[in-house]
């Protein structure tokens, strides 16, 4: 076993108060692409960059184009949890992992069996009518073409945080509480470039900060252990 992997295993074995903070890189191994990795495909298919389409203003002004992008680029109903999701769920069952704080909206942590999951940016699995508040699941959204409509006639909005929208304060509070009380904070699959979510790790007060990411991050200088590799590959080796 690699020296860094061995060190991470020792850190995990020695703690029962771990919090995991993750981003898009956690789900890419499940076939869910990071929409910020803009390629020529977007430029050919859409007249606007993803950040513009996924803004509250754009959603209100042009719901048809918003939902065309949302259906094509944000929904992956057939994606399955990978080794990272499964490893984290196992750590929670063992009583070691206290919470997962995620920037992802795909629900794969819950699908793997994780129970305490704080979704900073919402979830594609929760959708609400803007007129009457009726709840709709992902299958309901997938079943409708174009802009999904409620039985009352109102437009259904996904419970995901769009650009220009604020994060849910209750979710932030619980995330900060978990991170600030953690003995070990493992950060994986995120460039730590998206705020305010990335700023939450500044609440960590411990001395076992682990960064697992394919590339460097702005917080590397603070980390006690850095592993530049795929998160599923790393955690899959540690949690048998």
From TrEMBL:
<dbReference type="GO" id="GO:0017136">
    <property type="term" value="F:histone deacetylase activity, NAD-dependent"/>
</dbReference>
<protein>
    <recommendedName>
        <fullName>NAD-dependent protein deacetylase</fullName>
        <ecNumber>2.3.1.286</ecNumber>
    </recommendedName>
</protein>
<feature type="binding site">
    <location>
        <position position="35"/>
    </location>
    <ligand>
        <name>nicotinamide</name>
    </ligand>
</feature>
<feature type="binding site">
    <location>
        <position position="231"/>
    </location>
    <ligand>
        <name>NAD(+)</name>
    </ligand>
</feature>
<feature type="binding site">
    <location>
        <position position="105"/>
    </location>
    <ligand>
        <name>nicotinamide</name>
    </ligand>
</feature>
<feature type="binding site">
    <location>
        <position position="190"/>
    </location>
    <ligand>
        <name>NAD(+)</name>
    </ligand>
</feature>
<dbReference type="InterPro" id="IPR050134">
    <property type="entry name" value="NAD-dep_sirtuin_deacylases"/>
</dbReference>
<feature type="binding site">
    <location>
        <position position="105"/>
    </location>
    <ligand>
        <name>NAD(+)</name>
    </ligand>
</feature>
<keyword id="KW-0862">Zinc</keyword>
<dbReference type="GO" id="GO:0005737">
    <property type="term" value="C:cytoplasm"/>
</dbReference>
<feature type="domain" description="Deacetylase sirtuin-type">
    <location>
        <begin position="1"/>
        <end position="240"/>
    </location>
</feature>
<comment type="function">
    <text>NAD-dependent protein deacetylase which modulates the activities of several enzymes which are inactive in their acetylated form.</text>
</comment>
<keyword id="KW-0479">Metal-binding</keyword>
<dbReference type="GO" id="GO:0008270">
    <property type="term" value="F:zinc ion binding"/>
</dbReference>
<feature type="binding site">
    <location>
        <position position="121"/>
    </location>
    <ligand>
        <name>NAD(+)</name>
    </ligand>
</feature>
<feature type="binding site">
    <location>
        <position position="150"/>
    </location>
    <ligand>
        <name>Zn(2+)</name>
    </ligand>
</feature>
<dbReference type="GO" id="GO:0070403">
    <property type="term" value="F:NAD+ binding"/>
</dbReference>
<comment type="similarity">
    <text>Belongs to the sirtuin family. Class U subfamily.</text>
</comment>
<feature type="binding site">
    <location>
        <position position="24"/>
    </location>
    <ligand>
        <name>NAD(+)</name>
    </ligand>
</feature>
<keyword id="KW-0808">Transferase</keyword>
<dbReference type="InterPro" id="IPR003000">
    <property type="entry name" value="Sirtuin"/>
</dbReference>
<feature type="active site" description="Proton acceptor">
    <location>
        <position position="121"/>
    </location>
</feature>
<feature type="binding site">
    <location>
        <position position="36"/>
    </location>
    <ligand>
        <name>NAD(+)</name>
    </ligand>
</feature>
<feature type="binding site">
    <location>
        <position position="152"/>
    </location>
    <ligand>
        <name>Zn(2+)</name>
    </ligand>
</feature>
<feature type="binding site">
    <location>
        <position position="106"/>
    </location>
    <ligand>
        <name>nicotinamide</name>
    </ligand>
</feature>
<feature type="binding site">
    <location>
        <position position="213"/>
    </location>
    <ligand>
        <name>NAD(+)</name>
    </ligand>
</feature>
<feature type="binding site">
    <location>
        <position position="132"/>
    </location>
    <ligand>
        <name>Zn(2+)</name>
    </ligand>
</feature>
<feature type="binding site">
    <location>
        <position position="35"/>
    </location>
    <ligand>
        <name>NAD(+)</name>
    </ligand>
</feature>
<keyword id="KW-0963">Cytoplasm</keyword>
<feature type="binding site">
    <location>
        <position position="106"/>
    </location>
    <ligand>
        <name>NAD(+)</name>
    </ligand>
</feature>
<feature type="binding site">
    <location>
        <position position="28"/>
    </location>
    <ligand>
        <name>NAD(+)</name>
    </ligand>
</feature>
<dbReference type="InterPro" id="IPR028628">
    <property type="entry name" value="Sirtuin_class_U"/>
</dbReference>
<keyword id="KW-0520">NAD</keyword>
<feature type="binding site">
    <location>
        <position position="191"/>
    </location>
    <ligand>
        <name>NAD(+)</name>
    </ligand>
</feature>
<dbReference type="InterPro" id="IPR026590">
    <property type="entry name" value="Ssirtuin_cat_dom"/>
</dbReference>
<dbReference type="InterPro" id="IPR029035">
    <property type="entry name" value="DHS-like_NAD/FAD-binding_dom"/>
</dbReference>
<dbReference type="Pfam" id="PF02146">
    <property type="entry name" value="SIR2"/>
</dbReference>
<dbReference type="InterPro" id="IPR026591">
    <property type="entry name" value="Sirtuin_cat_small_dom_sf"/>
</dbReference>
<feature type="binding site">
    <location>
        <position position="103"/>
    </location>
    <ligand>
        <name>NAD(+)</name>
    </ligand>
</feature>
<feature type="binding site">
    <location>
        <position position="129"/>
    </location>
    <ligand>
        <name>Zn(2+)</name>
    </ligand>
</feature>
